[in-house]
């Protein structure tokens, strides 16, 4: 096998190994996918200042995110159905993240449950919450996350209603999945994936099935979830969750400075500048373009994180320079997982770390904590 040196190598390998309906689920955005594309492309437009003859020994990418030490300013983003990219995907990704020293965030819509991940990969991961109409279920879910030792709650605010994704509809990716004949034939050509799935009993949404009365299988689950994403979610609901959860609270899906100020007012510890990886409001601004105005609006009173389009260590450094304390990666780790399981997630993190370290050095920087806007070329980044 040719060496894997780049995130795109993992993407190509995942595409070969993961059944099309699940690969497409990860590698797509809503409607025209313009925001999905802009998330990546807008990073490329931001240029570094090349500096020379500066002692670059003793570099460190270590920092903190919501007070937690991290080996580099990265966390794994919450992604639904991760256990369909690879059998036991959430457990494998959580293990890889723990060994590398970065946080893993478990989605409400994961295949492996909170308890599975805590038992198999160890406590201390973060948990992502979707607000459902069934508030008693939310209270129980928060209590389960607490009992499992989750240290931060990531509350997603940009999915009260689902942005339409053409590929999922065409592939029959619904709950329960209704794959097309072409997709079933495609699964038959991915024996490594299929054998892995046969070897694990976990193929349902473990955080939900068996934890809501009457929801015992994929059929009853589909009826329940269809009615559960809560269109009435508002800042009062966020305040209610702030009262229920005494750990670190991170609000995900902020793209507007006005919403950033509201996030500050409800007492969150951090906010994530995010458009859900271009999967929700198609036509919204890319995350990296939205970042500077949000950083300026909250002025150090709350940690600002970012996700969307981060594909390299260079992107991590660009975001950090523009004020993001840390970035979450979604597709990059999913590609690693689909390509090579746990080893692929580790490879993804190694690639990002190496790129971050070398780019810092070539910009004349030795400490991630000292990086600021001055490492970027004026005129190449938003707000300059
Ligand atoms: C997501 N995302 C997401 N977000 C969330 O809060 N809960 C979830 O269950 C999911 N599910 C999900 C599935 C898949 C397949 C993807 C790709 C994304 C959004 C995710 O947390 C993050 O915002 C984006 O993935 C970041 O963009 P990149 O890194 O994928 O470009």
UniProtKB/TrEMBL annotation:
One of its GO terms (cellular component) is plasma membrane. Residues 1-381 form the FMN hydroxy acid dehydrogenase domain. The active site is at 276 (proton acceptor). Coiled coil: none annotated. Pfam families: FMN_dh. It comes from the Bacteria. Glyoxylate binds at residues 25, 165, 276, 279. One of its GO terms (biological process) is aerobic respiration. FMN binds at residues 78-80, 107, 128, 130, 156, 252, 274, 307-311, 330-331. CDD domains: alpha_hydroxyacid_oxid_FMN (cd02809). Its cofactor is FMN. Keywords: Flavoprotein, FMN, Oxidoreductase. One of its GO terms (molecular function) is L-lactate dehydrogenase (NAD+) activity. PROSITE patterns: FMN_HYDROXY_ACID_DH_1 (PS00557), FMN_HYDROXY_ACID_DH_2 (PS51349). Belongs to the FMN-dependent alpha-hydroxy acid dehydrogenase family. This is L-lactate dehydrogenase.
């Amino acid at each position: 096998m040719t060496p894997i040196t780049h995130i795109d190598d993992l993407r190509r390998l995942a595409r070969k190994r993961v059944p099309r309906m699940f690969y497409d689920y990860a590698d797509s955005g809503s409607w025209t996918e313009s925001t999905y594309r802009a998330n990546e492309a807008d990073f490329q437009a931001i240029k570094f200042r090349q500096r020379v003859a500066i002692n670059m020994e003793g570099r460190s990418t270590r920092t903190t995110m919501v007070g937690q030490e991290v080996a580099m300013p990265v966390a794994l983003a919450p992604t639904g159905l991760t256990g369909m990219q690879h059998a036991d995907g959430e457990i494998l990704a959580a293990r890889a993240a723990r060994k590398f020293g970065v946080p893993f965030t478990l989605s409400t819509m994961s295949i492996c449950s909170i308890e599975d991940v805590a038992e198999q990969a160890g406590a201390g991961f973060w948990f992502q919450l979707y607000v459902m109409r069934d508030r008693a279920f939310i209270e129980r879910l928060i209590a389960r996350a607490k009992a499992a030792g989750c240290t931060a709650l990531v509350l997603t605010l940009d999915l009260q209603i689902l942005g339409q994704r053409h590929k999922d509809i065409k592939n029959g990716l619904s709950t329960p999945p209704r794959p097309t004949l072409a997709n079933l034939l495609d699964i038959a050509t991915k024996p490594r994936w299929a054998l892995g799935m046969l070897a694990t009993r976990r193929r349902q949404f473990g955080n939900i099935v068996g934890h809501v009365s009457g929801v015992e299988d994929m059929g009853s689950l589909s009826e329940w979830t269809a009615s559960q994403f809560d269109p009435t979610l508002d800042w009062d609901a966020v305040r209610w969750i702030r009262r229920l959860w005494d750990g670190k609270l991170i609000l995900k899906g902020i793209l507007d400075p006005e919403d950033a100020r509201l996030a500050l007012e409800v007492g969150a510890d951090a906010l994530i500048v995010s458009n859900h990886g271009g999967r929700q409001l198609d036509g919204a601004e890319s995350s990296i373009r939205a970042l500077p105005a949000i950083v300026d609006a909250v002025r150090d009173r709350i940690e600002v994180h970012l996700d969307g389009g981060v594909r390299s260590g260079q992107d991590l450094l660009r975001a950090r320079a523009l004020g993001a304390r840390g970035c979450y990666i979604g597709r990059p780790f999913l590609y690693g997982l689909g390509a090579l399981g746990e080893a692929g997630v580790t490879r993804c993190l190694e690639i990002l770390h190496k790129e971050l370290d070398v780019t810092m050095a070539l910009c004349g920087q030795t400490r991630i904590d000292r990086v600021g806007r001055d490492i970027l070329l004026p005129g190449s980044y938003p707000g300059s």
